[in-house]
Specification:
The longest helix has 13 residues. The protein folds into two domains: about 110 residues, Tetrapyrrole methylase, N-terminal domain (Cobalt-precorrin-4 Transmethylase, domain 1), CATH 3.40.1010.10; about 120 residues, Methyltransferase, Cobalt-precorrin-4 Transmethylase, Domain 2. It is elongated and about 55 Å long. Helix 2 packs across helix 3 and helix 6 packs antiparallel against helix 7. With about 250 residues, the chain is α/β, with parallel strands linked by helices. The strands form two sheets. Strands 3-2-4-1-5 form a five-stranded parallel β-sheet, with helices on both faces. Strands 6-7-10-8-9 form a five-stranded mixed β-sheet. The structure holds S-adenosylmethionine (SAM). S-adenosylmethionine binds next to strand 10. Belongs to the precorrin methyltransferase family. Keywords: Methyltransferase, Porphyrin biosynthesis, S-adenosyl-L-methionine, Transferase.
């Protein structure tokens, strides 16, 4: 059995009880960069901890090599935990690992978890949906396999002002995304939030507007920590989101 376990955004208190139990029992834990740190303290002393990090801009283990490692430990009869950040089913390349396990005839179970999108909204003190103004939430990626903005963006959906949009892996491409959104009718003063290192000691919340955040990222470039961008009719505490990005 291979357990495909979600680690949550980084704060170990946001691990599920099931994830903590499986970590404590595991013989081997294969973890991503973003699923490291204090969450790994839940692994037992017997556990072999193997980093298979995949982080933008840094060399990383290729997916095939990760799949091969999972299979070889499982075939050796070990209790394998494959630990992935946030919720493993969201932009986590879970499907490739499921396919490899299925082809090899190795049973697996998925343990869901707290996605960084929910954790970012909670850290900012706001909901992801609003009864009257945000009746839909969409999770999108700001980077395709090339690392750039995907070429087949559904602009009508992404520029819909009545939706909360959460952009994963999008700090680098957000200036280009924002230009496209505004060209497709999204008001430049639409509330936006850059949520960096959610659930980690360096957590930083930068509320502002779509145009303001894009200008800041264009000027300063992306930080070296993971970040999410949320935009739409956000219920940013203390305002309508038209202020300058600032640390709360
Ligand atoms: C490969 S995706 C994995 C997403 C993950 N499965 C989830 O549900 O949060 C990695 C991206 O998720 C976002 N992310 C993951 N953890 C984060 C955190 N703790 N703080 C801010 N963004 C995070 C960033 O956009 C990062 O580039």
């Amino acid at each position: 059995m291979v357990w495909l376990v979600s680690a949550g955004p980084g704060d170990p208190e946001l691990l599920t009880l099931k994830a903590a139990r499986l970590l404590a029992q595991a013989d081997v834990v294969l973890f991503d960069d973003l699923a490291s740190g204090p969450v790994l303290d839940h692994a037992g002393p017997q556990a072999q901890l193997i980093a298979v990090g995949k982080r933008a801009g840094r060399p990383s283990a290729k997916q095939d090599a990760v799949n091969a490692l999972i299979l070889s430990h499982a075939r050796a009869g070990q209790q394998v935990v494959r630990l992935k950040s946030g919720d493993s089913g969201i932009f986590g390349r879970l499907e490739e690992e499921i396919q490899a396990l299925t082809r090899a005839g190795i049973p697996f179970q998925i343990v869901p978890g707290v996605t960084s999108a929910s954790a970012a909204a909670a850290a900012m003190g706001m909901p992801l949906t609003r009864r009257l103004t945000a009746r839909r939430v969409q999770f999108v990626t700001g980077a395709d396999v090339t690392g750039g903005l995907p070429g087949d963006i559904n602009w009508a959906a992404l520029a819909d002002p009545a939706v909360t949009t959460v952009v994963f892996m999008g700090q680098r491409s957000f200036p280009a995304l924002a230009r496209g959104l505004i060209a497709h009718g999204l008001p430049p003063d639409t509330p936006a939030l850059l949520a960096e290192a959610v659930g980690h000691p360096g957590q930083r919340m930068l509320p502002g507007t779509v145009a303001g955040l894009a200008a800041m990222l264009e000027r300063d470039g992306p930080a070296s920590v993971p970040g999410l961008i949320l935009y739409g009719p956000l219920a940013l505490p203390g305002g309508n989101g038209s202020g300058t990005p600032a640390t709360p």
